[in-house]
Design a protein that fits this description.
With 474 residues, the protein is mainly β. The protein has one domain: Porin. Helices cover 5% and strands 55% of the residues. The chain has three helices and 31 strands. The strands form six sheets. It has an 18-stranded antiparallel beta barrel. It is globular, with a radius of gyration of 25 Å.
């Protein structure tokens, strides 16, 4: 495995030296700029006269097909193609009870984009993901997948997009309650940020903008299930070695059934549903309301016969909203959703759905008006009138992230955490990254899991990980 990663590292770093088809132009705004002169270099006082007939609030560069104005609008036209993001990560499992010794990852995202400069825009995007696991449960898997590939029309007050897209609604950074349109990526569980734990899916989207707010209407014409890891992966949501399912309270009877059963994940045919969201923004206060009728992308396993579990993707109504405002030198966020059909397994091992609510409250602030950012969130899930079930009927967690740049912002210390309040459930992810070599980052991180049976931290308590990696966004 080590020679493979040496070769991959050499290939990836050589790719970063290749010329890109479309490069962004960095523009510097000078506040006190004379309307008749633009000084480019203070040393030689090079001066360019600006025509009187060009407005002082707008500078048009025709050769570069870029328009820059005082409202910070920057619109590029023409065709561009190249790499968007790359990541190479090597991970060592630190606990002796782990089923694997290492969990390694390779990611390459690329796209081609054309913009007419006025009404039309087209994008084709793809990604390559490689998963390499060594130990008792070894795994080598490479996958090619589509990214956000679409055709888009822009009018005066509308934007119409058809193709594969990421539709992520909500305000809370981690586990937003109204984020039910997106396709979840569980291939690496929660090692990545929320945005990176979502996949593109077929969607038709109409956005209407007005002075009062924005209407966002989405239809998902084809269902796409969540991206799951291989069954041998340590991040699998089914562990037949231990007889456990992610999110289910383990019992001796249930564990015996899981160990000896077969799991099928046939995806349902047809559309995945749709929804509408209205958002409104005013000075110091924003809010949004949403109504959705969608299938959940993460499978829920029903015992349909002795020795056989079948994946279910139930449809559910989702009615909710979110709000945010600034007060006391902080940004406060609130979000909640009611769901009509949450799948559960009763203690007689039969399947049903129940109503439930998911809610969250968060605050973001910068202590001492410095560069350190603190983001704290309280999140809860409550089932309504649930019968006796194996599932957890109440979940309360305290989540957050602390981001500290230092050494003239050439280094960054970031710590994400997830702490259960009703049961012991712990996930802590400190990361030290060197960010002074833009757009590249070199990082060292740990992912620590611990918890009671039936919790996320308890399910992955043997999978604590030490990682060393490189990533770049172009």
């Amino acid at each position: 495995m080590k020679p493979i990663f040496n070769i991959l590292t050499a290939l990836l770093f050589s790719c970063t030296a290749l010329p890109a088809f479309g490069e962004e132009l960095d523009l510097i705004t000078v506040d006190e700029l004379d309307e008749q002169e633009l000084i480019l270099d203070e040393d030689d006082s090079t001066v360019i006269d600006i025509q009187d007939d060009i407005a002082s609030d707008e500078l048009i560069m025709e050769d570069a097909d870029i328009t820059y104005s005082d409202n910070a609008s920057l619109q590029s036209t023409g065709f561009s193609a190249g790499l968007d993001k790359m990541q190479l990560e090597a991970g060592h499992l630190t606990k002796s009870g782990a089923e694997a010794n290492s969990s390694n990852y390779l990611h390459i995202a690329f796209s081609a984009h054309w913009d007419s400069g006025s009404a039309w825009e087209v994008q084709l995007a793809g990604r390559i993901d490689g998963y390499y696991q060594s130990g008792r449960q070894s795994l080598v898997h490479t996958q090619l997948d589509y990214g956000e590939s679409f055709i888009r029309y822009r009018g005066d007050n509308i934007r119409f997009t058809a193709g594969t897209q990421k539709i992520i609604w909500g305000r809370i950074d981690e586990l937003p309650p109204t984020d039910r349109m997106s396709v979840v990526d569980l291939s690496r569980f929660n090692l990545d940020d929320h945005q990176d734990r979502r996949r593109a899916a077929p969607a038709i989207r109409l956005e209407y903008f007005s002075d009062a707010g924005k209407f966002d209407l989405v239809w998902l014409p084809e269902f796409r299930a969540a991206e799951l890891p291989g069954r041998k992966s340590i991040w699998s949501i089914v562990d037949q070695q231990k007889g456990a399912l992610l999110g289910i309270e383990p019992t001796p009877i249930m564990s015996t059934i899981i160990k000896g059963s077969r799991f099928t994940e046939d995806e349902p045919h047809g559309d995945a549903g749709g929804g509408v969201r209205y958002s409104h923004s005013e000075s110091g206060f924003d809010y949004a309301l949403t109504a959705q009728r969608v299938r959940q992308s993460v499978p829920y396993y029903e015992l349909v016969s002795f020795g056989r579990f079948k994946a279910r993707y139930p449809r559910s109504w989702v009615i909710g909203g979110d709000a945010g405002f600034e007060a006391l030198d902080a940004t406060w966020s609130f979000e909640a959703a009611w769901l009509s059909d949450i799948p559960v397994t009763k203690t007689d091992i039969s399947y049903t759905t129940v109503e439930g609510v998911s809610w969250a409250a968060g605050v973001e602030f910068y202590p001492g008006d410095g560069d350190t950012r603190v983001n704290l969130q309280l999140i809860g899930t409550n089932l309504i009138d649930a019968p006796r079930v194996f599932d957890r009927t109440e979940i309360y967690t305290f989540n957050g992230a602390v981001d500290i740049p230092f050494a003239h912002e050439r280094w960054r210390m970031n710590t994400r955490f997830f702490i259960g309040l009703d049961k012991k459930d712990i996930y802590i992810n400190p990361e030290l990254a060197y960010i002074g070599w833009e757009p590249h980052e070199i990082y060292l991180a740990t992912h620590y899991f611990a918890g009671s049976a039936g919790t996320l931290g308890g399910y992955h308590q043997n999978h604590s990980l030490l990682t060393l990696g490189w990533r770049a966004s172009f």
